[in-house]
């Protein structure tokens, strides 16, 4: 199985901050990486697929990038609704696997 | 818009079989995969498997042969059965739509609200 390692596990930030969340794949997954946002008691919401493609309706302050097997989710100018847990997911091969999550908290 | 809703018993006895159904509304089930993902309380997401509208399946080997999935497109529903459950299977179970377009492969764009299943005697 492809292991997905996210860091940090949590981050404290203020409204308007720019934050980055990292995700490392245990092997090459090309650009097959997605990001989800999950709020407490709710289902995950797809934000980004194929490393950097924004899902319809997702604000442009969300962005994704890749360097080798390292992937980054960037949120520019944090908004109140962005405080949540974020998960990466490899979309390269079965079984599909997720990172452990990064909780974005209010500082 | 497309909506998914899970249904099934919230309490399952150890060693018995967990059964959940996901009902789809607002769109056809054809030409999509339909997935199951679970999440133990306070933990991360685990992909269970998926089924195509034709009945083809892909499963997570970690659950070995305990998983059975089925689909009835005429009823607009798909189902999950997980046999020989233990306390480790206690989780919120989500159903989700999994896309087939090459650029969007293996990503889930519509999710149900989740069904909490507890395994306990």
Topology (SSEs and partners):
The complex is a heterodimer of chains A (107) and B (121).
Chain A: E1 4-7, E2 10-13, E3 19-25, E4 33-38, E5 45-49, E6 53-54, E7 62-67, E8 70-75, E9 85-90, E10 97-98, E11 102-106
Chain B: E1 3-7, E2 11-12, E3 18-25, E4 33-39, E5 46-52, E6 57-59, E7 67-72, E8 77-82, E9 91-98, E10 108-111, E11 115-119
Parallel strand pairs in B: 2-11
Antiparallel strand pairs in B: 1-3, 3-8, 4-5, 4-9, 5-6, 7-8, 9-10, 9-11
How would you describe this protein?
The complex is a heterodimer of chains A (107) and B (121). Chain A has no helices and 11 strands. In chain A, β5 and β6 form a beta hairpin. Chain A has 107 residues and is mainly β. By secondary structure, chain B is mainly β. In chain B, the strands form 2 sheets. In chain B, strands 2, 4, 5, 6, 9, 10 and 11 form a 7-stranded mixed beta sheet that branches. In chain B, strands 1-3-8-7 form a 4-stranded antiparallel beta sheet, with no helix packed on it. The model of chain B has no long low-confidence stretch (mean pLDDT 96).
């Amino acid at each position: 199985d492809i292991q997905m390692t996210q860091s940090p596990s949590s981050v404290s930030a203020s409204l308007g901050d720019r934050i980055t969340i990292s995700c490392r794949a245990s092997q090459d997954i090309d650009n097959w990486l997605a990001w989800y946002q999950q709020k407490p008691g709710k289902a995950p919401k797809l934000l980004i697929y194929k490393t950097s493609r924004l899902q319809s309706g997702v604000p442009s302050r969300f962005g994704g990038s890749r360097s080798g097997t390292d992937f980054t989710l960037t949120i520019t100018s944090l908004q109140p609704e962005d405080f949540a847990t974020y998960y990466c997911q490899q979309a390269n091969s079965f079984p599909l696997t997720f990172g452990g999550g990064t909780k974005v908290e209010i500082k | 818009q497309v909506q998914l809703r899970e249904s099934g018993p919230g309490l399952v006895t150890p060693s018995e079989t967990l059964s959940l159904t996901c009902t789809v509304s607002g769109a056809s089930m054809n030409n999509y995969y339909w997935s199951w993902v679970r999440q133990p309380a306070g933990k991360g997401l685990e992909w269970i498997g998926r089924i195509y509208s034709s009945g083809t399946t892909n499963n997570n080997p970690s659950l070995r042969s305990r998983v059975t999935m089925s689909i009835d497109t005429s009823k607009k529903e798909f189902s999950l059965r997980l046999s020989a459950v233990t306390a480790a299977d206690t989780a919120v179970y989500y159903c989700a739509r999994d896309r087939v377009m090459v650029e969007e492969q293996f990503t889930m764009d519509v999710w149900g609200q989740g069904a909490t299943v507890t395994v306990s005697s």
